[in-house]
Amino acid sequence: MVSALTVLFIGCWLAGQSEASRELPEPRPSISASPSGVIVPGAAVTICCQCRCEARRLFLYKDGIQIQELDAAGDGGEFTIPSARREDAGFYHCRSRSRSEPEPHDYLRIVVAELSYPKPSISLSPSRGVTLGRTVTIRCECRCQKATFLMYKLGNLDVRRWFETVGDVAEFTIHNVSRRHTGSYSCQYGTKLDPSVWSHPSDPVELMVAAFVT
Questions:
Q1: Is the pTM of this model over 0.70?
Q2: Where are the domains of the chain?
Q3: Which one in 46, 98, 121, 141 has a CA-CA gap of 20 to 30 Å to 189?
């Protein structure tokens, strides 16, 4: 399972200056893809690198190897795979420099597979909506064993979470819910027995967030 992103603010001491004048590190690039779910062989996928930094070029890596240099005009650059192959599956990340940059904190996993398995079921708990600051669980369930689940938010390329289970259920918990969590969610699953085949997307489920629930 891909863990939640962690941003470390590391102060750099300047000679003769106080703790209040520490320098924060330059922002690191983020990465997203469209579409958000599993990519069907032959379909197009666009990978987007974004960075609120001074870099004029961004570098795209796949499985630790640099594969593309992107023009960072407008704080971002795109790389499109016009016809995805199974070889395009893997872990991608972006850098603002080709060398001497700290390890990236934002990885994107892309899966290229046929969609043959039945779609999983998806549900929310609580089901009638959730109030601000509370906790909601998105539950995905399939008729399978030892599955890997991918949960994503439709229309928001940055929300993708993975879960590996020996059973047939995955639960994705969102703590301290805010209005930005409002929207439609879907999930898919694949099995370790045949990673070249995944399920069709689940029916979307709508998460409603309000100041209070009647």
A1: yes
A2: 19-110, 114-210
A3: 46
